[in-house]
Design a protein that fits this description.
This protein is an alpha/beta fold and about 500 residues long. It contains 22 helices and 9 strands. It has helices at about 1-5, 25-40, 45-60, 60-70, 80-90, 95-100, 100-115, 120-130, 140-155, 170-185, 195-200, 210-230, 245-255, 275-295, 310-320, 330-340, 360-375, 390-400, 420-430, 435-440, 445-460, 495-504, and strands at about 140, 155-165, 190-195, 235, 265-270, 300-305, 350-355, 380-385, 400-410. Helix 2 (about 25-40) crosses helix 17. An 8-stranded parallel β-barrel has the order 2-3-4-5-6-7-8-9, surrounded by 8 helices.
């Protein structure tokens, strides 16, 4: 494990960035201008209304707080009396400017009604939240989902289905979620699905690395067998930093087994983690060797990462350095570096690359990089279902197709799916986020110019972005004027794990 830790701080010379594609940023910017025009032409009345609602929401911090309270607090409370009490507290900060006249009046009427008829009113509130999330979280019921898949197929969009639910705490919950994923895989209309290992195996213990790996492998073998029979592509999602090494290990171990030697499957890497650069090199080298043996390929979905708030909270709680990069500009530079290193002719046969983003600048740049290197067939563009429909249609027209990451839940389980809504709200309302800027973006606008500069900086800074682990680099944590206790031992550190195993 010490060797693994040392290798994660060093990348091979083959993994160097290519200055020869720096000039593609100008071509990418021109493509963005074209995509913006096409997106406006694609926008439906519903899309226009949603954009106005989001733009209004983002201008009003109090409205964001009310929305977060409704989704993250009120919707989780099953007792209607207690839910009504929480609703009245959350709604105190509601404003017309942030929510619009209709929703504002609806909330104020519901506040009064919740005192007299809490059960009836809270049912109506839940219905309104479900309606507002329609298109972002889809119904898992067979008829509704099948109809949506068919509609999207006509628009050259494919769906990557993710069965939502609460964080898994026990074996019963893990088994229930596992069965839900299996049921989805067996549906003939669903040919692509994503799953996190922490969603189907409970209580993954970092210090018990090998034991956790074995428990995950046992579950995944069953899932991958179903995938082979039903011809469903399985993508291993990534969320928590502590599950990174386990996820990569089970992915490689499983696909090296004779039973799955010819299976094509996918995995996610998060650009906000410096370690992703090591794992990209590791996965590409392994996949190229596997392709030579069996002809099977893998897909690496490159995302920026959407678990920042929890990573920061966990690090602060234990006295650790947060694993993700500290600045948005660092994440963007990391993202372009991963694109540069992944989209190369020597990788094209063994590894497909999914560029998952709503940032049209990064999407356009990845397309131009792929074209420049003659590997456009290696590339998939991926977006979130319901978050930027017009842009997705423009991408589908340009590329021939687009893949939409699609969270689904049964109507009865909707309250347990609100964590996804909360993460999306948290991510999309951050000041530097592209989606926040995109709601009123046009060529030459202030938001456009700011995002263009950020993009150009990310292209140039990819050559110098540090890829050494932040969590395991013993970076000092400043607590000026405060008492700071000794940090907890970090069980994700391979060096610590190795020392502990040797000692005991």
């Amino acid at each position: 494990m010490r060797i693994v830790a040392e290798r994660m701080c060093k990348l091979s010379r083959d993994n160097e960035t290519d200055p020869g594609i720096d000039g593609l940023d100008a071509i990418a910017i021109n493509k963005v201008n074209q995509l913006l025009i096409e997106s406006e032409a694609n926008r439906s009345r519903k899309d226009i209304g949603n954009r106005k609602r989001f733009a209004r929401l983002l201008r009003e911090p109090a409205a964001i707080a009310v929305t977060m309270g409704l989704t993250d607090e009120v919707m989780r409370i099953s007792n209607p009396v207690r839910a009504a009490k929480s609703f009245r507290t959350v709604s105190k900060d509601a404003t017309i400017s942030g929510l619009g006249l209709v929703d504002y009046l609806g909330i104020k009427i519901a506040v009064v009604g919740s005192i007299i008829l809490p059960k009836l009113v809270m049912k109506a509130v839940r219905g309104r939240v479900e309606f507002a999330s329609n298109g972002i979280i889809l119904p898992a019921e067979k008829k509704e989902l099948s109809s949506h898949i068919s509609k999207r197929s006509q628009e050259s969009a494919r769906l990557n289905i993710n069965v939502l639910g609460e964080a898994v705490l026990g074996d019963n919950e893990a088994t229930e979620r596992f069965n839900s994923v299996i049921e989805m895989i067996r549906r003939p209309e669903a040919n692509y699905a994503s799953v996190k290992i922490s969603a189907i195996v409970s209580q993954l213990i970092t210090i018990d690395h090998f034991g956790s790996v074995e428990r995950v492998l046992k579950r995944l073998r069953v899932l991958y067998r179903e995938a082979k029979v039903n011809k469903t592509f399985i993508n291993l999602d990534m969320e928590e930093y502590r599950d990174l090494s386990i996820t990569v290990e089970v992915f490689k171990t499983l696909l090296d087994e004779p039973e799955f030697a010819d299976l094509n499957a996918g995995i996610v890497l998060q650009a906000y983690l410096p370690e992703s650069h090591y794992y990209l090199e590791n996965l590409i080298e392994w996949s190229r060797n596997r392709f030579m043996r069996s002809g099977a390929t893998i897909k690496i979905r490159i995302v920026k990462g959407a678990n920042l708030a929890m990573e920061k909270a966990e690090a602060e709680l234990h006295g650790w350095t947060p694993a993700p990069y500290p600045k948005k500009s660092d994440v963007d530079a990391s993202y372009t570096r991963l694109i540069d290193l992944a989209l190369r002719p020597e990788n094209a046969k063994a590894v497909r690359i999914g560029i998952a983003s709503h940032n049209l600048f990064h999407i356009a740049w990845s397309i131009e990089v792929a074209k420049n290197r003659g590997v456009i067939e290696q590339l998939d563009i991926e977006m979130l279902e319901g978050m930027a429909n017009a842009e997705a249609l423009a991408i589908a027209k340009s590329m021939g197709s687009v893949l939409l990451y699609t969270p689904v839940t049964r109507k009865a389980d909707f309250p347990s799916a609100v964590a996804y809504l909360v993460r999306r709200l948290d991510e999309n309302t951050s000041l530097e986020n592209y989606l926040r800027a995109s709601f009123d973006m046009k060529e030459g606008s202030a938001n456009y110019l700011d995002q263009k500069d950020r993009f150009k900086n990310s292209v140039s800074e990819r050559h110098t972005i540090v890829t050494q682990s932040r969590r395991h680099s013993n970076m000092p944590i400043s607590h000026a004027g405060e008492f700071a206790n000794a940090s907890d031992a970090d069980l994700t550190n391979p060096i610590f794990q190795s020392a502990l195993a040797t000692e005991y």
